[in-house]
Automatic annotation (TrEMBL):
Naturally occurring in which organism (per UniProt): Raphanus sativus (Radish)
Membrane-spanning segments: none
Name of protein: Protease Do-like 2, chloroplastic isoform X1
GO MF assignments: serine-type endopeptidase activity
Residue ranges of the region described as Disordered: 53-93
Family, as annotated: Belongs to the peptidase S1C family.
Residue ranges occupied by any Protease Do-like PDZ domain in the UniProt entry: 417-558
Keyword vocabulary terms for this entry: Hydrolase, Protease, Serine protease
Biased composition (Basic and acidic residues): 76-93
Classification via InterPro entries: DEGP_PDZ, DEGP_PDZ_sf, PDZ_sf, Peptidase_S1_PA, Peptidase_S1_PA_chymotrypsin, Peptidase_S1C
Gene Ontology biological process terms from the UniProt entry: proteolysis
Amino acid sequence: MAVSVACCCFSFLNAPVKLQPSPLCFVAASSPRAKLNPEKKKNLKRLTVRVKEEQDCNNDGGGTQTMSAFKSSFGSKKDKKDSSHPSSDLRNDPAKIHDASFLDAVVKVYCTHTAPDYSLPWQKQRQFTSTGSAFMIGDGKLLTNAHCVEHDTQVKVKRRGDDRKYVAKVLLRGVDCDIALLSVESEDFWKGAEPLRLGHLPRLQDSVTVVGYPLGGDTISVTKGVVSRIEVTSYAHGSSDLLGIQIDAAINPGNSGGPAFNDQGECIGVAFQVYRSEETENIGYVIPTTVVSHFLTDYERNGKYTGYPCLGVLLQKLENPALRECLKVPTNEGVLVRRVEPTSDASKVLKEGDVIVSFDDLRVGCEGTVPFRSSERIAFRYLISQKFAGDIVELGIIRAGEPKKVQVVLRPRVHLVPYHIDGGQPSYIIIAGLVFTPLSEPLIEEECEDTIGLKLLTKARYSVARFRGEQIVILSQVLANEVNIGYEDMNNQQVLKFNGTHIRNIHHLAHLIDMCKDKYLVFEFEDNYVAVLEREASNSASLCILKDYGIPSERSADLRDPYVDPVDDTQALNQGFGDSPVSNLEIGFDGLVWA
C-alpha cells in the first residue's frame, strides 16, 4: 500500500513536527508522537480488514450512558423530545445548523507543550504550541483529546464569538482512550453556556456533523458526512483497541477534541484521528460516547483515571474443524489460549491450551467474536473494554475436554516497554558518564530504529513483562571523560547485570550502585560485553562530568526514593523473553489476537 507523507499536526512556530509516512495519525498538534510506530504501520491495513470481517456493524443505536457527576451532559428524555431545543429543527432543516446554540459549547484550545527529551532525560525539548478543539459537558468541565494537551505547560480556551482566552487546567488524561478532562475556573467563561447532550451509538449511514477549529481559518468549522462503520478500532495515541466510529466527514488538523453530532444535535463522539493513504480518502474516526462514559465513570469512581483493563491472554481462532476436534470442543465456538501474560491475574487460573467459550455467560464464537446489538457480531475484546480495573469476570473454558468455570480479575496491562511515561519525565542515572535509562517507545522513536538496534527492537516488540515493575534498562550514551576511556562509543545497549546481580529496573540499578562497597563497578551488557569502572574514581569524577555537560543532577528525582523490590516470585527472573508479538498491530495475520 502506498502511504502518503502527511503531517496531521496543527502546530505553530518552532514546533518539532516530523513528517513521516503514517497512515493513522492525530488531527491536532499536541504530541511529538502523533503517529503510529513504524513497526505498526505495515499491519494497520491488515488489522482494519480483519476487524471488518469480524464486524460489519449495522447497530441499533442502543447503549446506555450512566453518570451522576456529569448528568447535565446527557439531558433527560423529556429534554430530548422538546421541540423548542434549537437542534430539533436540524432534522427538518439542516441548513439551520449555523444558528444552533449547541455550537456555542464548542471551544478552541490553545496549548503550549514542553515534551521530555528522552535521549537527554535530564532536560526538556524546546516548547511548541498547537491548537485543537474541546466542548462543554457540564459541571464546569470540558472534554478534549489527550494528545491535544500532552506534555502541557499552559492551556487556554476561547469560546465562539469571544476574543478573550481563558486559562484551563488539565484534570486528568486517559492516554489509552485519548480523552482528557479540562476545567476553567473563570465564571465569565461559563456565562450563558449550555453543555452538550451525549447521545447513543449511531446507526450505519446516519448523518454526522463534525464541529471544531481546524486549520484554514480562525472561526468554527462544520463538516458533514455519514457513519461508515462501527467496530473495534486501533487508537494511535494510546496504542489500544477500543470501540470506534468511522465516518466520511472531513477531519483535519485542529479538529481533534471537537464533537461529532447527529441530526438531533446530540454529541455522538469525539473526533480524534484520520487514516490517510493513496488508496483511501475521507476516513476519519470518532471516539463514541460509550468510551467517553467509561472514562468519566472511571474518574467518578476512583477520583483518578485507572485505565482500561485487559485479560492478558493471546488467543487463536478455532475456525478449523480438525483443531476443534483435537481440543475436544464439541461446538463451533471458542478461542484457544496460546499465551498468558505472567503479570495478569489470568495467569493464576488459565493455562496454554485452554479454550475460552464464554465471557460472563456470553458465548464466544470460533472467530473470536461475540453478539453485538441485535444481529451483529463484534471482536471479543470489546466485552473486556466495557469493564473497569478490578472487575471480576466469569469465563467458561474447556480444559482437556472438560468444561469449567473460572473467575478472573481484570487489571490494566503491564507494558515492558511503555508507550507513554508516567509523570512525563523519564528516569535516568549517570555513573562516571555512563547514562542509564529505561527503554520506552518514545525513546525508540526519538533515537530512530536504526540506532536502537535489531535486538532491542525485537525485545520491545516481542517481549512481555515477567513481573510488575520490570524494565529494560539500557546504556543510552557515554559522556566522554578520562574515567570512562574505551567506552565512549557505547550507546543503546541493554545492561543485564551489575556486579553479578540481574537488573530488574532502573530503580534497582540505582539501589545496587548505592549499596555497592566493592572496589569495582562491573556492568554486564547484551552480547557478553562488560564494562568495569573503579568505584572511588567514578565517584570523584561525577561532579566534574555533571559540570562539564551542564547536567543538574546525576539521577532523576524518582530514583531518590527508597527502593522496593517488585518481585514476589524469584522464578520470574529466570523466565526467558517471549517470542510472540506484544500487540495486535504487530501480529502478521488475523488468526491470533491479544485480549
